[in-house]
Amino acid sequence: MELKYEHTLLLVDDEHAIIRALKRLFRKEGYTILTAESGPEGIEQLKQCRTPVSMIISDQRMPEMSGTQFIEQAKTLFPEAICYLLSGYSDMDAVIEAVNKGEIQRYLTKPWDDEDLLLQVRQSLEHYELSFENRRLAALTIDQNKTSAR
């Protein structure tokens, strides 16, 4: 399935090299890329964003705020956003917390496989679009039913 909408991705990691690598990977896909080097900076990016953010990819271990804490707050601003958590560490407690509190869709380890990550992101964005289209059509049906009932 080909993506029908433009998508904005927010990449959050305290390591500048990781952000650069992810930007290079996703930019060639045509996504709009926002970046932040900390959880608080990511929250500010989301507060200032005027268009929907389709996906958030965050590091887990960052100073000030963990990726799980960041995603938990980010979901209050963009509840429909797909969230991936990246980590260089295999910490099962962090995975469980991220799933339970952060509503993440994927927990990925560093280093990642570029082709696999691109495929997972594309599939998630396809699902995002299908969910959006379902909500849009449901709202349209409700609106049409109200109009025809008058």
Protein architecture, described:
β3, α3 and β4 form a beta-alpha-beta unit. The protein has a single domain, classed as Rossmann fold (3-Layer(aba) Sandwich), CATH 3.40.50.2300. A five-stranded parallel β-sheet has the order 2-1-3-4-5, with helices on both faces. It starts with 7 loop residues before the first strand and ends with a helix. The relative contact order is 0.15. The mean pLDDT is 88. With 150 residues, the chain is an alpha/beta fold.
List keywords for this structure.
150 residues, alpha/beta, Rossmann fold, globular
Largest sheet: 5 strands, parallel
Strand order of the largest sheet: 2-1-3-4-5
CATH superfamily: Response regulator
CATH architecture: 3-Layer(aba) Sandwich
Distance between the termini: 39 Å
Please state the overall shape, judged from the principal axes of the Cα atoms: globular
* CATH fold type: Rossmann fold
Count of strand segments: 5
The overall number of domains is 1
Number of helix segments?
5
Q: In percent terms, what proportion of residues is strand?
A: 15-25%
Helix content: 40-55%
